């Protein structure tokens, strides 16, 4: 695997802090304080904040040059997960049509590590692996436009996951009846089996399951097909 740049490392560490609920929706992220806490110079932290803002994960603070975690709303969560379901299910379908053995092996490796980190309650690393899984499928669709929009939707939806999925927002007693790594495994099985229809359905079910299990006020998600 390629080594991460200083900017990418800063971005992942910022996401880990947010996954640990060190910050709340609406709260400003101060570049100087983050650089000091991460033991990094301000340049990669500044660049990482800008990259996260470009995905919708952060927004510009009103009346200042900094960034903040956006406020989250029922309408926004519905819109984001609706579009994720449509685009990512199609990406999984395209991946199943032409996935290489190397892609399948990497999906299996990520998925196995997801189970390990879930059982060890390593929330930050689990979040990173979840990103790796979804982005690899998007990359493997071989459609640059799909990849671009999936990345933006993924990061925006990730705010709701990090703050309102029981695994991230509860210290214990989180919902173990719904295990996302098992849903991921069904997607990999379909991709490896070269079954585009099954891959599409498995991803659509996974996105809908994620939406339904968020501890956030929302309407039933309909028409995602």
Automatic annotation (TrEMBL):
The HTH gntR-type domain, residue ranges: 4-72
Record-linked InterPro entries: GntR_C, TF_FadR/GntR_C, Tscrpt_reg_HTH_GntR, WH-like_DNA-bd_sf, WH_DNA-bd_sf
Pfam families the UniProt entry points to: FCD, GntR
Protein name (record): DNA-binding GntR family transcriptional regulator
Native source organism of the sequence: Aminivibrio pyruvatiphilus
GO molecular function, one term: DNA-binding transcription factor activity
SUPFAM superfamilies assigned: GntR ligand-binding domain-like (SSF48008), Winged helix' DNA-binding domain (SSF46785)
Keywords: DNA-binding, Transcription, Transcription regulation
